[in-house]
Amino acid sequence: MKKILTSSVAGLALFSTAAFADVELRIATDSGTIDAPSGMAIATWAERIEEESNGEIEVTVFYQDELGSQLEVFDLFVAGEVDLMLSWPSTSYDRRIGVVNTPCMVGSWEEAFGALGHGGWASGILNEVFGGIGLMYLGAWPEGFAGVATRGTYATNIADAADIKVRVQPFFPIPNTMQALGYQTEALEWGEVFTSIQTGVVDGDSGNVIYWDYEYFGELLDYYVHTRHDFVTGNILANADSFANLSEEHQQIILDTSTMMMADRFESARAEDEANIARAVEGGMEYIEPSAEEVSEMCTAVRDAVWPLMEENIGADIMAQIRENAM
Fold it and tell me: Which long-range contacts (CB under 8 A, 24 or more apart) does 14-21 make?
């Protein structure tokens, strides 16, 4: 039976052994509570692993903040204290991980699947990058195209963004991307965002699909501008040593169930994002679509400013593949 632990006992669970199963695995996500889409996804993944293994594998599930902050849980994952993860990973170990945050790389859901799906042109890049820090890339878990959520004011072009300060995730090249879009930026951990908006440290949040901004900050924020500057996706990952220690049969179960997880998500995510837009609008948030011309101007500015920085940090070979295949 899968164990879902609270923070009070999570630390002890990392060093426990399963009483009845042959193997115990630990799955975590750094972004998503038990009832969030990402939390429900890892719970389903755990159930499938246990079912496919006929109970030979027991899985413990850890949700957002149960093992620490976003950076802390990724540290545990790289160290092998967590075996499988749905992650929006830190670039602190290897700046090349920033390839998952490449702005204006794809322009449609179809292009995203062609890039990030199994056999997609970007999946090989991600295998190489994550392999460098002892992780295996098992697939994408898409959320949708990013936007900027603010209160009191908003911008649909670079000039109007100059007086707006937004929270950015502290991962390369996300701050650089938002600066190229004209915004002032403040890098903040997720747990600091609500208070920072509430007290005026920042005017809003950036780089997320609307679900996160409405679900967590809807009472504070007035506008969501769908800039589409980035395709937001979690990453389905395995610790390479943990995977290598499994039998071939159990390894195949991990591969098969992660493939199912990605397929489920690509099928459902687009409709889910559209439903969340409708929910936010119904709840009083104004949803704004920049014109095609405005989106094109923003992407041109971002590519001109950020892609050369990425080439310096992730390598000319990787950027050459991105330039060849991107929209």
Answer: 14/67, 14/76, 14/81, 14/82, 18/58, 20/55, 20/58, 21/55, 21/56, 21/57, 21/58
